[in-house]
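S1.2 Input.
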Amino acid sequence: MSGHDQLVLCLCELTRLLWKLLLPLLFLCALLLAVLVLLVLAVRLWLQSSRNARRARDGRPAVAFFHPYCNAGGGGERVLWCAIRALQNRYVDTHFVVYTGDQGVTGQQILDGARRRFNIVFPRPIRFVFLRHRLLVEPSLFPHFTLLGQSMGSIFLGWEALTEFVPDLYIDSMGYAFTLPLFRYLGGCGVGSYVHYPTISTDMLSVVRERNPRFNNPDFVSNSLFLSAFKVVYYCLFALLYGMAGSCSDLIMVNSSWTLDHILSLWRAPGRTGVVYPPCDVGAFLDIPLEEDGDKKCHSIVSIGQFRPEKDHRLQIRAFKKALDRREGAGGEEALRLVLIGGCRNQQDEDRVLMLRGLCQELGVADRVEFKLNVSFEELKREMGDATIGLHTMWNEHFGIGVVECMAAGKVILAHKSGGPKLDIVVPFEGGQTGFLAEDEDSYAETIDRILSLPVGVRLQIRRDARQSVARFSDREFDASFLAAMEPLMGTLER
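S1.3 Output.
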């Protein structure tokens, strides 16, 4: 037998062997798939029986909000509390639940914090489900592949929430899209989401492609062609998974035009997606008098925002230092101070404040910069009343509640030229200017100097136009828009 014939014979034998193995493999795959389907159905039936038992016991449906950091005191938390208050006022026979990862506090202490920080009081009690594994969504747990790690961690945290309490309707109010399919397909719940900021965006991809260093694109990545290319592939794959998870939502609310554009491109559900501007407590600041400030001996610049890295407080401090140098070089007589007001969610945020204090010492402005952490609403309002300029520096801020509050308080706002401030907030109103935009240290310092050099009457008119323009972001407008968006989902509970 020739070598060629032997090769053909071997190939035939190999083909017969593979064919014999194929059927058992197909049978095994089918068996495993059947077991998986049965397991999913069993879990779903178990969870639904838990919900039915709870519904029979309580006699009313339950709406649950997933907000692991509900005691943080930021703009996202204000949206949560205003949303629940609006729903409680409209649907008196519905039970409302909040999944939170806050430990060491009681539900009543959380509600007291909402009243103290946001001036929000609820007509009826709210139940809190305290989750024990919030660490799974902490970025510190995932020094690399943070987006993927946090998203996978949110699935486990969502599973803990679902097994602790099975609602009729689930709302993700903090941006954990990967929990949506869990509650929809395993829990059998109606699901909705309020998106403050897409977990990934085309802007993030462009930063990596252009090898531009940012807080989420460190120098060692931006300086490496290979690592940058790898990160682009990683981001693209993650964006695909993120879009698949988000598309499970029956209702999608976004907080700004900028967020809308990104969510439409990622989740691809235009018929279920709409803008609901977040509630800003504009009414609480309207009693701050609008007066000429030309006789001030000290102008304060106030910044409102949690001490998170993306808020870029370092830029604020460096720009403030340059503005001081410009004013002193030009012989400016008024004193300047910078007041940084914000909440700290955890030890990382507190460590970040210490680093910022160190930066102030390094630049020689420690005596001109004040840090006010987790302040009461009354103290916040007092500082706002004393300020001349409201400062915001986050690149691609999704909306910017602090920006709106500064404008409502009659401050001259100076915000980042991107995201929500650029597209939705600091825009002309009835032909009048409502504020200023900047991009880097030099442009911020230059604009601060320009604002303080404006004629008093011109500055006063900008403040008036800004205050009038933000009525569209009031609590009342939010309540109306949010309830209109939620009505179809809430209607399913009444059947």
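S1.4 Remarks. The chain has a mean pLDDT of 88.
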